[in-house]
Amino acid sequence: MSARGPVPDDFALPPVERFSWRRVGALALRHIFVFRRSWPRVIDLLYWPVMNLLVWGFITNFFVAHSSWIVQAAGVFITGVLLWDVLFRTNLGVGLSFLEEMWARNLGQLFVSPLRPTEMMAGIVLVGSARALIAIVPAAILALPFFGFWVFSVGLPLYAFFVNLLVMGWWVGLFVSAVVLRFGLGAENICWAVLFLIAPIACVYYPVATLPAWLQGVAWALPTGYVFEGMRSVLLGEGFRVGLMAGAVLLNAVYGVLSALFFLKMFDVARVRGLLLRQGE
Hints:
The chain is an all-alpha fold. The protein has 11 helices and no strands. Helix 7 crosses helix 8 (190-202) and helix 7 (156-183) runs antiparallel to helix 10. The chain starts with 20 loop residues before the first helix and ends in a 9-residue tail after the last helix.
């Protein structure tokens, strides 16, 4: 009883319930069920530690055997970082442009308009390229005051490498968008993770020869191996190697066509199954 009299029942505090491990277990079980139904979440748990181990392990192996290499090639790392970011930002720009339409549940509205899937592809590629340029150009300029390296001094070969990585970012972004369109937003982490999957064999910071022999063939099956080997050849004073550039252009053309066809196929599947109106995890 209070000093002002008994507290009415309507104002009485609810009884304090004891901490329940049963409810904690139920909440944990709920997340386990989500993981059981979402293989991208399970892969995401395992993915980053393994990728970090592989990338930095290969870098360590290379410098153990070539400790004087970096002295001869000032700017190789800076150019490699910037070119890798061209690929990463372009892929992310294309993928995010598509994901934003899914997050807004806007695909249904878009495709009841006269918009065609090919126009959708062109639009997100255009926006993705603009995002990459906005992100990369200021970083490239800042390399001069911070590190004394003017990356544009590499000349025309730099622009050729840049265009190849831009095109690779397009087709990787379209492939990722097609996967998300088919499997829903539960697979959206692939947008960020896919390039780190190929990072160990992209050979940005070390030559393809650093990889185990059985993995070198996989590295040469991607445009990145040709682009970054070509970049090192120019920066080390070995000249512009036309064969490497031709390999990158050919692979980009093949994978670009396949990726566009895959996107159109997944769009047809999504349209037939009504997925354009039912995006969600």
